[in-house]
Amino acid sequence: MPELPEVEALAGFLRAHALGAVIGRIDIAALSVLKTFDPPVTDLQGRDVTDVLRFGKHLGLQAGDLWLITHLSRGGWLRWADKPSAAPPRPGKGPLALRVHFFTLEGLTPAIDLTEAGTKKRMAVWVVHDPREVPGIARLGPDAMDVTEPEFADILGRTTARLKTALVDQSLIAGIGNAYSDEILHVAKLSPFASAGKLDAEAVSVLYRSMREVLADAVARSEGQDAARLKGEKRSGMAVHARTGLPCPACGDPVREVSYAERSFQYCATCQTGGKILADRRMSRLLK
After folding, report:
1. 89 close to 61: Cβ distance less than 8 angstroms
2. CA 207, CA 143: separation in Å to the nearest integer?
3. Contacts for 102-106: CB closer than 8 Å, 24+ residues apart
4. Separation of alpha carbons 53 and 11, rounded Å
5. Strand, coil or helix: what is 200?
6. Which residues contact 282 (CB under 8 A, 6 or more apart)?
7. pLDDT for residue 288
8. pLDDT in tens, 54-73
9. Three-state SS for 6?
10. H helices within 92-200, ranges in order?
11. Which stretches does DSSP call E strand in the chain?
C-alpha cells in the first residue's frame, strides 16, 4: 500500500505536471471505485487543476471548489500517460479503474490512470466540495510529519494498543502503514507487541525520532521520482519489511515474520525483542 512518502511524492509529481492543466474527459472503467455521485464526476470537466495535496494516505486533486480524492488502498497505483489512448476503456477489462484526461498550457493531452491489481477491489475515489466529507479524512489524527513530540507522547499514552497497531491507526497518527511501521520500530529497536501506553519517556522520544528519521529519509528518496519508479524506490530502502529470512542489516540475524488475517509484518528478534521470537498466529493454527 502506498504510504505517506509515496503519496507525498505522487502529490509532488502531479503538482509539477498537472497544476494549471484543464481537466478533460473522465473515463470510469470500474464503477465500484467511485464512492460519491453528487456532485457527479463530470462536474470536474473543464476546470483548472488548482492544487494537489496529501491527506494522510489520501491524494487530493483540487479543481476550484471541487476535489477529486483518491485512496489507493493495497493494490492501487497512479500512472501518468503522456499519450493515453483516445478510445474510452472497456469497463471491467484489465486493472484500469479510472482515467482523467488533461489539456495542458503547452498543448499536450496527457492523462492519469488509477489502476488496481488483484481481485479485491478496495481503491476508492470521491468527488467532494470539502476533503473532510471523505470519512477516512474526517477521522485522521495529526500527520506523522507534523505531529510534535509532546502530541505524539500524549497520543501513545492514551491508547492501550500494541505499538504496531498504534502506528498504523490513522485516527491516531496519519500516514504510516504496514511497511514503514516495521521500519520505524526496527530503527527504534522496539517490539511491535510492546504496549504503546506503557512506554517510558525515553522510549517515546526514541520512537518519535525514529519515525521522523525513517519518513524523512523515504520522502527525500522519493522526491523527484516519476510515478513509475516509486514502488521500486520504496522497496530498495527497506531494512526488514518484506525481507523475511534475509539478514538484518544491523546485526546479521534473519528477519522474522508474524502473519495475521491477510497481513504480515517483519522484525528482527535480536534488535527488537531481546532475542524472543514472537508468536506467528498462522503457524500456531497449523500446529493445533
Report:
1. no
2. 15
3. 102/18, 102/21, 102/22, 102/23, 102/24, 102/49, 103/21, 103/22, 103/24, 104/18, 104/20, 104/21, 104/22, 105/20, 105/21
4. 6
5. coil
6. 259, 260
7. 32
8. 999 999 999 999 999 999 99
9. helix
10. 135-138, 149-157, 163-168, 178-188
11. 22-28, 51-55, 58-63, 66-71, 76-81, 96-103, 111-116, 124-128, 256-260, 263-267
8 A C-beta contact, residue 23 and residue 14? no
User: What pLDDT is recorded for position 280?
Assistant: 78
According to DSSP, the β-strands at 58-63 and 66-71 are antiparallel
What is the Cα–Cα distance from 21 to 41, expressed in whole angstroms?
17
Cell 514502488 appears where?
231
* Grid cell for residue 173: 497518527
| DSSP code, position 142 | S
For 275, other C-beta atoms within 10 Å of its C-beta total: 10
Q: Which residue has the cell 492544487?
A: 51
In angstroms, rounded to a whole number, what is the distance separating the alpha carbons of residues 70 and 224? 21
pTM for the whole structure: 0.92
Low-confidence ranges of the chain (pLDDT < 70): 224-229, 231-232, 281-288
Q: Which amino acid is at 81?
A: A
Q: What is the DSSP letter of 110?
A: -
Q: How far apart are CA 180 and CA 4, in angstroms?
A: 9
Cell triple for residue 213? 528519521
DSSP-based three-state secondary structure for 55: strand
Euclidean distance between CA atoms 276 and 267, whole angstroms: 11
Q: Are 217 and 183 in contact (CB under 8 A)?
A: no
> Burial, 151: exposed, middle or buried (Cβ in 10 Å; 0-12, 13-18, 19+)?
middle
